Structure prediction request, 128 residues.
Amino acid sequence: MKIKFADDRLTKFIFKDMIYMKISFSHSQRKQMIFMTPSIQQALRLIHPGMIVSLGGGRHMQALADALAQTPIPGIQLTSPSELTLAYCQQRNLPLAAVPTRIDMAFDGCDSADTNLNLLKSNGGIHT
Prediction:
């Protein structure tokens, strides 16, 4: 699957972070969080007040939920195809969209990526 973004700088940044996240799996949990931080900060910059945001599953989405709990953005609502992610967001008192009629931004990780930005997903079983 090829994904193209309107802003080439965003593509390069996200691709670089995907590689960092992939490499980080061979390091300790502490080092993994260090590698995750730039992509979480970039994701926060893309979320604007009033958006409905979908989060995928896994540790990276939990880290993004934690960041949203620490840095509230007015009027956002969250949704997810993952029951675990929804429960995690609810535990952090993040606003959930009951039945979203639109999704303004969606975030998820990938299991691997090549230099052509072909992404492989769903070792974990959810497709966003």
About this structure: The mean pLDDT is 74. The domain at 8-112 is CATH 3.40.50.1360 (Rossmann fold).
